What does this fold into?
Amino acid sequence: MLAAFSAQFTWIDWLVVVAYLGFTTWLGAKMAGRQASIRDFFLGGRKLPWPAVSGSIIATEISALTFVSVPWVVFKPGGNLTYLQLGVFGSLLARILVGYILVPAYYKREIYSPYDYMHNQLGGHVRSLTTGLFMLGGLLGQSARIYLTAEVINVVLHDQLVALSQALGLNELAWAIILITGVSVAWTLIGGMSTVVWTDVVLFVAFLLGAITALAVVVAALDGGLLEVIRTGWAAKEPGPWGKFTFFDFSPSPVRSYTIWTAVIASTWGGLGSYGTDQL
It folds into this structure.
């Protein structure tokens, strides 16, 4: 199955991949040497425009894992749009709180990381504890994200990774992980935060264009087009009163995965950690 899927990776797909990697690498090299101080490396010299920073945040949040998994959450039997409550309500509320409470505090004191702020406010022991917890959580979380993204790359580039594995050893998944981490670390070391932000902007544009293109291709390939998509989704009554288009779920049941209460309470709390105190 993997080989069959990989065989569908045509020269057009390769052209897109090579063009993206080439452009982002050129962008990183162009910014190399501009970080004259630690302030430039971690804060981008405070010269980054807010639209670019916003695009970087979105691209970081919408990872490759999100890009391939969320459609399945909606498409699977019993799935619908209730998952989006977490982003529309929980994440939005968390961003508002971070923007009005934490960002001004960081900006005023020119904090390089949330843990510097904790050191200033609560002492070195608290900073050491929270830094350790962050490193543990980051290691576990990022390991899962890299692994699952590597699984996707292993599907898309299976034949190429098999050839690499046979020539140099290690299995295909290991080479996929090396590819992801190698490119990510190289971009960061080349130009610091500025490189990360601007390459994320390119990634955000690629995500957006990819989603629009994929949607257009899928809809065009269906008999009946967009109207058929709407009719089929609306007729799937088992997920909710509006079929696949059910967005709100006010159920108080603790066993339901995606409800408005999960979004407002759990997603907001998690967002405060992700957007306001997570160094990543």
